Fold these 2 entries.
Entry 1:
Amino acid sequence: MATLDTGTGYEVKPSTYIAALTEVGRGTPMGELMRRYWHPVGLVSHATSTPREVRVLGEDLVLFRDGQGRPGLVQARCCHRGTTLYYGKVEERGIRCCYHGWLFDIEGRCLEQPCEPDGGRLRDRVRQPWYPVQELYGLIFAYMGPPEKRPVLPRYECLESLDDGEFIDADDTSIGSGGGAIAPCNWLQHFENVLDTYHVPILHGNFSGTQFTEVMNQMPKVKWDYTPRGVKAFSTRMVAGGKRMERTTEVALPTLRVVPNPFVGGYGRVESLGWTLPIDDTHYRIYTAGRVREKGVFLPKGLGAATNRKRWIDMTEQERRESPGDWEAQVGQGTITFHSDEHLATSDKGVLLLRRMLNTQVNAVARGEDPIGVCFDPEAPPIVFEAGNFLVDA
Amino acid sequence: MATLDTGTGYEVKPSTYIAALTEVGRGTPMGELMRRYWHPVGLVSHATSTPREVRVLGEDLVLFRDGQGRPGLVQARCCHRGTTLYYGKVEERGIRCCYHGWLFDIEGRCLEQPCEPDGGRLRDRVRQPWYPVQELYGLIFAYMGPPEKRPVLPRYECLESLDDGEFIDADDTSIGSGGGAIAPCNWLQHFENVLDTYHVPILHGNFSGTQFTEVMNQMPKVKWDYTPRGVKAFSTRMVAGGKRMERTTEVALPTLRVVPNPFVGGYGRVESLGWTLPIDDTHYRIYTAGRVREKGVFLPKGLGAATNRKRWIDMTEQERRESPGDWEAQVGQGTITFHSDEHLATSDKGVLLLRRMLNTQVNAVARGEDPIGVCFDPEAPPIVFEAGNFLVDA
Amino acid sequence: MATLDTGTGYEVKPSTYIAALTEVGRGTPMGELMRRYWHPVGLVSHATSTPREVRVLGEDLVLFRDGQGRPGLVQARCCHRGTTLYYGKVEERGIRCCYHGWLFDIEGRCLEQPCEPDGGRLRDRVRQPWYPVQELYGLIFAYMGPPEKRPVLPRYECLESLDDGEFIDADDTSIGSGGGAIAPCNWLQHFENVLDTYHVPILHGNFSGTQFTEVMNQMPKVKWDYTPRGVKAFSTRMVAGGKRMERTTEVALPTLRVVPNPFVGGYGRVESLGWTLPIDDTHYRIYTAGRVREKGVFLPKGLGAATNRKRWIDMTEQERRESPGDWEAQVGQGTITFHSDEHLATSDKGVLLLRRMLNTQVNAVARGEDPIGVCFDPEAPPIVFEAGNFLVDA
């Protein structure tokens, strides 16, 4: 043999991932950071008199709306004997377990124990584990952290200041996942992608033809930086007529994607927010709320015209291979990507800043401090993001 | 924030289950208690010249009947090279492995090794692991415990004293599971349910409409107590005409459900016995034997009339949610329910006594003692249960 | 009870398997032995401009052929951010990842990083893990071991010396598995079977009727012995006309089955080789190369005539039970058979010699020595096997 092979797979070290930034169960570093914020757990329309199973941060819960119109979110397993409340009945005052009829209100208080003497003399001693919820922007938000650390539910300027004819619509189909509603991989793989500005011209412009627009296909110039609640990417691209497009995309804790419309139907501030909800360590979904002029229409009308792609759900595996998108790239990293195998480069600076920021906040919470972005002032003004697409003179 | 949330899911301790009462593998506390009794492993008609796979207490076995009509139960993997005897051939003298033709009799003795000199000079040194079986009441019972502790196969008075026109029929469809033949949860969840008298008016009377009868829908008065071989529940309900229904339900070791017909077609002593066989830690099935007057008819003729329910197998998930039964409540507790999360109340006294009794017996076996109900006297009279539905003057 | 039961399943010790001879992951004893040899990873036709997922020795890889016609085998996950190269694009110079467009040549060198300044000034510092491959006999072979120990790719006399009209054909349908292309059990179960001469008259002759020929149904006389690269079985059977059939079957490291045609269409040296490739610890497949006179025809024309069996793929489970073959016997041993439960006899001497040989070679590699059969001389003559069916005077 003339030369020795170098760089073969035989030399690769065993693969590992960074658990502290990816796993979200109660008691884990990231799980505790996540539990210091409110998370969407459903559309407002999901809380009804029919109990609905939801899985959030690795916990199995049941969402419902009592007869008084109040949404409730409780642990799925009844605190009495463990039967799932999925088979329960929703009543005026709460949800009743099918097995022995214990009735719980939306805060888990046990109101009736019909098999016990006097309907349960000691019923005040039990409590169905529950979480506080609030409705906003068409979504139901839950707070699953330590009660004494519960922040106010944030409001966002981009969803508060409506232009004429606009209203807020919400969506649970995981807009931005590039595929189905429940992605079988860790949430951080998607969250990092939001700051991964350079993949746009490659994955969405080159590999798949034009998924977005001709301008977006250009290789941009990008700067990343920290923000008060996350990390932002500022990118510029040249536009016909001597103009320049300036585009700012942000991520904010806990899981917000603040992404201006990549189809760039018009210029201006960001018109929607997405929450990259970790279902558990290996699944996520995205809830979205945004300003719209028509019900159920988030993506531009001319979608078929603007891209050469079928809808993902209608593609064959062969078509997905010929025109891969975010879903293929991110789910294709595995259920939890192996960080030990990575080789980050200068164009990955956004990913790097995000991980550093998350690491800092995980450590802050571990030290007993509040992480960035939590707010305890009910009078605080709505949060303003920089994100948007803007046209400027070059 | 005016007040602090209390009782939220954030405070719940990590969930655990009582392994010593639920797991049934060889060498586990409950597994060793279980192995001191006979268990049904099939219908008499299941032992034929075609080997049948059965799984019992976590062990994979093969059931067959040799050419002399004797049932045999052996470990599935051949003791020679491990091939499953499921592909074996049953012959006059036993079962022959497909791979190298070793022939084993019903007690695992190796009768032939056709590839060895002289048909195997040392064949007496090997033994296919086997278990003794006996046929009774249309069922095949196996003893899987220490040979020196093998009790006599019990006989039961309720299956011995037949009224005119009655005969014994056996069933393997898990009558009483409220659903399919193989339930994907721990056996104890079902076994406890037998003593859970108070769930009847709630789950079977209120949630699902009338699953049994109007009288059974009444909230009963219940007393529980130990018996010489288990625990019993004594309940009373008022009947039209100033009468009172007295109903006694029992569980007996190892897994017997002694449940009078809840449809109460007639009054009298219990007419059938069920065995809640643990297939493994997370699956069970029920074998039943009972006095009948017609083949294959355990439940009352007027089933359709007596209840408003379809058969479970014919229900949609939506219909099961609207009319949940035992299957939904018990499988809904999870594969093995988390006992750490429970809050037992006075109406759960039957469950509590059962667990105490099981715990006492598990400990007795661990100390080398015989558990209750085992009997080594072949002349012992049939076992009499108190169970039944009786009408008395109020 | 008159007598005590003996030999029941209750006395069986917990079951275990020999990990050092079965598991094939990197860093395991057998995995390291395996990685000292070349293994087939696909047909020559499998390496194309469409990336193909292959799994070998527990590693997920992607096989392709660049625009210059060179086959390449790289780790499936891109070394940049971990996205699978299954969604990559094959180009003139290599394979390009869909996510950020890094381009790798067939030896994993990074040729382009389009999102980095100047196409990646530091791109030489990264390397996509790759393995060397070579094409021979219609197959693609890979070497996955330590580079400094890379042997020459062996050539075999039986595939080099062609008779008139013969050519070499390759197959990936696992000829010899007795069933499907990917067997859900450990590779060693199949590999041992090759030396298990005595199962032929039982499994293939008696249980299933005549799977091969009447002569093969005879109980043979067998001798086993070590060879320079494995173990051989020499068997004799009487043939009509006072002749004797002498048949030699071999296994050779790493996974070669050197099996003369059991249908014995004609006598002579072995005409094909099979590689029992471990996909991972619990799956294997067989690649075959052989001398043929017709494309795609390995088995004798008269297959239907010579045996009473349907093709396995066309059989029902019932038919497989009535006529079990190698697949049923070997997959029926479980995903990895429990060696602790076995009772080997004199007719298992071939299995015993094979395990001893493998154990010796595993230990040799662990001591830093070269295992048998590896050769570093590119001028070495083709390897000659003894295997064949021969007719001699009795």
Note: Chain C touches chain A through 47 residues (CB under 8 Å).
Entry 2:
Amino acid sequence: MAQQHLDPTDPVAGAVTGDALAGYLRAQATEFLRALRVHRETGGEGGAHARAKSRPAGNGSVDSVDAARALRRSARRISASLHTFRPLLDPDWSEAIRPELAWLSGTLAMEHAYAARLDRLLLALHRLSGAPVFPAQAGTGIAGGTGIAAGTAGDSAAGVHSARAAGTAADGPLGAAADSPSRTASDAPDPAADGRVAGAASALRQAAPPHAGPPAPAPTPDRGNLTVGAAKAGALLERQLTLARTRAHSTALQALGSSRFHAVADGIALLASEVPLTAAAATADLRPLAAAAEERLTDAVAALPLVTAGHPYNAEALIHGLSPDPAPHPQDAPWHQVRLLLRLHRYAREAMHGGDTSVDVRLLAAGQSLNRHRDASEAAAAAAQAARTPRIAPATAYALGVLHADQRHEVEAARFAFQQSWQMQRVGTS
Amino acid sequence: MAQQHLDPTDPVAGAVTGDALAGYLRAQATEFLRALRVHRETGGEGGAHARAKSRPAGNGSVDSVDAARALRRSARRISASLHTFRPLLDPDWSEAIRPELAWLSGTLAMEHAYAARLDRLLLALHRLSGAPVFPAQAGTGIAGGTGIAAGTAGDSAAGVHSARAAGTAADGPLGAAADSPSRTASDAPDPAADGRVAGAASALRQAAPPHAGPPAPAPTPDRGNLTVGAAKAGALLERQLTLARTRAHSTALQALGSSRFHAVADGIALLASEVPLTAAAATADLRPLAAAAEERLTDAVAALPLVTAGHPYNAEALIHGLSPDPAPHPQDAPWHQVRLLLRLHRYAREAMHGGDTSVDVRLLAAGQSLNRHRDASEAAAAAAQAARTPRIAPATAYALGVLHADQRHEVEAARFAFQQSWQMQRVGTS
């Protein structure tokens, strides 16, 4: 951990002044403007709209997604630096632009968040069904996968695509559900999801070998297949999260075309040429402010239930798994807060050590655990929310319940992982 | 661990002969006959039938349950000893009585297993709902708990009773479900469970303060209450497992009155007076046979995926959580097998060291982990099975899905705990 105020062997033990901060902010602003240019050149079609295009021509989309990510990345860093080193910056300017940067990175993040949430949940459904994530017939699945797999072309990892295509191509229960006990529980139809399932089923039929035929009595259901419930749950989540994602995409496009955004871009352009420091900033020491950021982090971590989190399988994260309250778990909030404080601390280190300093892998690991915590927490909420859809089949609801609990255990696992990497940091620096 | 063939400091390093085995078998047979006498004197009413009696008069039931447990306990030990030390015993006699003892302890165990499974699942439902397990109003709950809490009077721990009574007395969502989103998902009625829920709800109304009234809009749903889904899931499990338990009780009573049982009792009576050892047994060394039992255990443990199990949150146990196959998880079988081999090893140690030897707490801990593994595995299967009940409400199915996943994580946690205690044993004996 960066205890630069304690560690006499720190390479930057000499004073780090406002000049270093100005250099860092200029570099981030330049990166922001570069990413914005790329994003405009590639048409900003990185998201849901990319699915309307043919896949081979999707390179522009990939670039656009990278550009959007770079935009968010530099916006976060600028915003964090304005916060941590507030006393060194012209207060009028920095207080005005900081909320705008937060609005921008929040707006740009939503589309990616929905896409990643859907991928996480569909992957989990396959894992929970014992389906192979990289099956041999993935190629067939992609070729025939007009139902589900084409939904998110553009910004997902190829591995995730394979997994989702495999779901489309998964054989057995969908075609031969007559002997599946869960079939008896699906009397109440799920009109919302049925269309999707039918789509997946037809894709399945295209991909299936000729001898498989329609509803033939399959011998023994293979454990590697999706149940009707899992397939319907996946289709329901696909529908709901794709809709949310499409809306987020439109919102992001609107935001990037708005006068509000242009004001932000102007502010960043100013930053790239001249950082509005206070008069005293050029010679002021950054370290006390960075140390204060670290202290806020340390205090927040100290308030976490780390002893419990370090005890594997403590079953804390699922305590409200059946709570009637659909709101996010209150127990997650302090962890989300630490995630933000850890990021502020990491960016403050970057500002002081320059962008070319070696990355602290332990800080990175802790941060990744907290990202995983946030993602799993929100995915669990999405599963619980989907289970409240009216008139879904019991088998669908059951699968969503299993999925919800699985993601809450991911939450608990992420807390454990954070505790482990945090303890390691303590040992490493003491 | 008992590595008496390796450890020169073992207190019984001298030869242990068939005489010790005869003494052990006689003691267990005497205990069996004593327990049988108590069981007959108390009327064998320890189980489901006890609920027809009033609670203050239930002491006989408690004695009867203890007696049934003692019967199973000694039957297991006799059967295990006949197996491990087979070459030292009259083969005709031991081969004839061993399957009969297995039948007897298996038959007697079922009723307790169903009761314990129900308690485990209801406790988990409360934990998952964030409901306090020992709430202040537990007394009220017991007094008014004619719906659910009276179902298992007699052989459960008082704490469990409090928890279940608390469920009956839980306020809020049942009465004020109109504003709960999950209510919208319960259009499909669950005739099987509704009667029970109505019972619980009426008990609730009896226990509720007068101002609570029927369907009044509650302010904010408290996280400590059961959702409609959790309450219905609990009622469904209660109904299914109580039925299974009542049948098991009848089967056990029939078994204890059968001529087949009387033949077993006669065999045990013979054992209490004269153990049918072979001619060479009196001077034969028990240790090679006990060592062979330990070796079978060690080999089986070595075949377990202990590296995975020792990695917390490995998510292995839930891999088939949505599998269409309702059969028990094949991945659980080797653990169940180790559980049996560990028991054989423990009883072999008892036979050699005498009943008064100090208990190896590490062996006990490992065995308890495997018991927990078995219990959670079977509870998870019961939840999955209940979710296949036709025409249940989606909210019920959702709660059962969460419950199933929770119990599968208990399975994983038990494997982790076993791995930990097993590693400790290795360190302790090396």
Note: Chain A touches chain B through 61 residues (CB under 8 Å).
